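Quick start: read one record
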Amino acid sequence: MKNILLDTDVILDFLLDRKPFSDDTLHILLKCEKKEMNAFVTPVIVANTYYLLRQKASHNYVIDQLKILLKIISVLSMDQKQVLAALDSKFTDFEDALHYFSALQHSRIEAILTRNGKDFKHSELPVFTPKEFLATF
């Protein structure tokens, strides 16, 4: 498995250095930097990350951190098709449904990494915590 979607909580673990979770995300991002795997996010994940980080740091700092991160990971596209699929889905968390259908649309995504696996119980894609994923990689 080399193509993964990183959920907002995983990105925040790293950027906020939330121990012990940030260590696992660091290992994953280092593998991405070495081109051993590819990590993706959605535009919604980027926006949520900005919003949550902005509550703790300046606009310029947050923008700089996101730009650095986006040199290592890629942003999936999202359009009306994914939004409608999310609205029609069994997911109870609309935001997670958006991430899921964006990942599903891009057939190269092989897994979703999150610390909120219960939110993806309707996922056809494998769902792992970063720690579980590293154990299988």
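The domain at 3-136 is CATH 3.40.50.1010 (Rossmann fold).
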